């Protein structure tokens, strides 16, 4: 409903931010990482948002990056993980580090996040591992080249490992390449 908010940041703290769009000022809950990415108050800011209307109130959640919003949306699909716990997860660990921890079943690392116990960490790993095909995950030094996430996802569906897919796509990536060209090139790279 409210995809993003752009305006002047008039207030921020590690849990909330207020952005004045001119006609309306939006207050939203944010993660610690979004807080660090926001400019100083009085400066222009842009955040992606997720709007929730429930019986007990109306809530707006803000994210500095689209990857953070996508992870938030995946996290709240897990039973017993609500928006507050999802924000705690985003505050406790970088998006790529968290996604890699899930893909590698690092229960101990995930359970170091405040509010996450061993059982919740196990549930997160079980429920999210297969859902990460819709998001790009970097393995540390080799992030997926921009716009190539769909190619990586398609290659994953063929049974290749995420690390191999990302390496192949990054090796042949050109900014003017279309999906089909990237897919064929990466597949050729993986077969050799």
From TrEMBL:
What's a single GO MF annotation on this record?
Answer: four-way junction DNA binding
User: Region annotation Domain I: residue ranges?
Assistant: 1-64
Annotated localization:
Cytoplasm
Which Pfam family is one of this chain's hits? Answer: RuvA_C
- Which residue numbers delimit the Helix-hairpin-helix DNA-binding motif class domain? 73-92, 108-127
Q: What HAMAP family does its record include?
A: DNA_HJ_migration_RuvA
Job description of the protein: The RuvA-RuvB-RuvC complex processes Holliday junction (HJ) DNA during genetic recombination and DNA repair, while the RuvA-RuvB complex plays an important role in the rescue of blocked DNA replication forks via replication fork reversal (RFR). RuvA specifically binds to HJ cruciform DNA, conferring on it an open structure. The RuvB hexamer acts as an ATP-dependent pump, pulling dsDNA into and through the RuvAB complex. HJ branch migration allows RuvC to scan DNA until it finds its consensus sequence, where it cleaves and resolves the cruciform DNA.
The name under which this protein is listed is Holliday junction branch migration complex subunit RuvA
Native species: Denitrovibrio acetiphilus (strain DSM 12809 / NBRC 114555 / N2460)
Name of the gene encoding the protein in the UniProt record: ruvA
């Amino acid at each position: 409903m409210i995809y993003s908010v752009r305006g002047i940041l008039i207030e921020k703290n590690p849990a909330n931010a207020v952005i004045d769009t001119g006609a309306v000022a939006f207050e939203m809950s944010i993660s610690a990482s979004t807080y660090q990415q926001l400019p100083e108050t009085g400066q222009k800011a842009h955040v992606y948002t997720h709007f929730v209307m429930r019986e007990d109130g109306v809530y707006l959640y803000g994210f500095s990056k689209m990857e953070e919003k996508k992870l938030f949306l995946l996290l709240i699909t897990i039973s017993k993980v609500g928006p507050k716990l999802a924000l705690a997860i985003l505050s406790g660990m970088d998006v790529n580090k968290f996604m890699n921890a899930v893909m590698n079943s690092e229960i101990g690392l995930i359970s170091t996040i405040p509010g996450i116990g061993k059982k919740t960490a196990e549930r997160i790993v079980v429920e999210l591992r297969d859902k990460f095909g819709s998001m790009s995950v970097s393995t540390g030094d080799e992030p997926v080249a921009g716009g190539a996430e769909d190619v990586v996802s398609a290659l994953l569906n063929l049974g290749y490992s995420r690390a191999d897919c990302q390496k192949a796509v990054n090796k042949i990536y050109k900014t003017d390449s279309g999906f089909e060209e990237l897919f064929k090139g990466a597949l050729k790279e993986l077969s050799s």
